[in-house]
Amino acid sequence: MANYPAQVKIVEVGARDGLQNESSVSTDAKIALVNALAEAGLKHIEAGAFVSPKWVPQMADSSDVIQGFVRRDGVEISALTPNLKGAELALANQVDEFAIFTAASEAFTQKNINCSIEESIERFRPVVELAQKNNIKVRGYVSCVVGCPYQGEVEPEQVLSVCKQLLALGCYEISLGDTIGVGTANQVKQLLTLLLSHIPAERLAVHFHDTYGQALVNIHTALEMGIATIDSAVAGLGGCPYAKGASGNVATEDVVYLLQGLGIDSGIDLERLAKAGWQICEALDKAPVSKVSLALKNSCQS
C-alpha cells in the first residue's frame, strides 16, 4: 500500500508560468482568473512576474493583476522576482511570497539567463535578504531536473547540489521542474530517492510538464514517495517553448481529479476550477488542454 500524504498543497502557476507562454490576454481577464481560482479553493496562486517587460511582455501588468486580486484569508499570492528591482516591486505590491529560479543544467542557465548556476544563485542573495527583512517566504525553482534541451540528460547529483545551495540561501521550499517534460516514473523515483536522503519531503515540490504525456504518472510516483506539494496550471495553460505544439504545464483539473480518486484532500472545488479554466481559455480563444476539463465541459453540454 502506497504511503500517500493525507493532504496535498497545490501551487497554481497558470496565471504566471502558464500565461507567459500564451498569447496576450487582457488584464481584466487575468484578474478574473486569479479571483476565480481563489473562489475555487486554491490557497497558493502565482499571480505574476516582476521581470523586464521587454523580455516577457505578457507579465508587464503584474502589478495591476495583483492589485485587482480580492484578498482572502488563507490565500497566498506569489510572484517571480529574478532580481532586487523585481523583489522591491513585489514588496510594494504586498506579495506574500517571492519566487526565484535557476536550473540544474549549466547549458540551460547560460542560454536562459546568461550566467553560471553559481552566479545565478549569487544574484538572488539581495532578493532573499530583502525577503527576510520583511518576513516574506522565498520559494526556489530548479528547472531541467531530468533533462535539458541543450545538454540532454541531467544527473540527479547535480539537482541535489543546486537544491542544497538554494536551501542554504534561505528558500523554504524547492520546486523541481521537468521543464521539457521528458521525465519518466523511473527517473523521478531515482531522483527523489537521492533528494529525500538529504532533504525532508516537506521542503520539496514537483513541477511536471506534460510534453510526453507523463506528468500525472510522475506526480503519482512523487505522491507515493511522500511529496505533498504539486505545481500545476489551470486548463493546462502554457505550451512548452522547447517542443513545438506540445502541452506544457500539467493541468490543475487533472491533478485534482487524480487526488480525488486517491482519496487525498486538496480543498479544491473541481467544478469551479474547471469554470475558471473555461473562462480564461475563452479569452485566449483556445480549448483547455486538460482532459478532465474537456470531459466536464462535454457532460455540461450534453
UniProtKB/TrEMBL annotation:
<feature type="domain" description="Pyruvate carboxyltransferase">
    <location>
        <begin position="8"/>
        <end position="274"/>
    </location>
</feature>
<dbReference type="GO" id="GO:0046951">
    <property type="term" value="P:ketone body biosynthetic process"/>
</dbReference>
<protein>
    <recommendedName>
        <fullName>hydroxymethylglutaryl-CoA lyase</fullName>
        <ecNumber>4.1.3.4</ecNumber>
    </recommendedName>
</protein>
<keyword id="KW-0479">Metal-binding</keyword>
<dbReference type="Pfam" id="PF00682">
    <property type="entry name" value="HMGL-like"/>
</dbReference>
<dbReference type="GO" id="GO:0004419">
    <property type="term" value="F:hydroxymethylglutaryl-CoA lyase activity"/>
</dbReference>
<dbReference type="InterPro" id="IPR013785">
    <property type="entry name" value="Aldolase_TIM"/>
</dbReference>
<keyword id="KW-0456">Lyase</keyword>
<dbReference type="GO" id="GO:0006552">
    <property type="term" value="P:L-leucine catabolic process"/>
</dbReference>
<dbReference type="InterPro" id="IPR043594">
    <property type="entry name" value="HMGL"/>
</dbReference>
<comment type="pathway">
    <text>Metabolic intermediate metabolism; (S)-3-hydroxy-3-methylglutaryl-CoA degradation; acetoacetate from (S)-3-hydroxy-3-methylglutaryl-CoA: step 1/1.</text>
</comment>
<dbReference type="GO" id="GO:0046872">
    <property type="term" value="F:metal ion binding"/>
</dbReference>
<comment type="similarity">
    <text>Belongs to the HMG-CoA lyase family.</text>
</comment>
<dbReference type="InterPro" id="IPR000891">
    <property type="entry name" value="PYR_CT"/>
</dbReference>
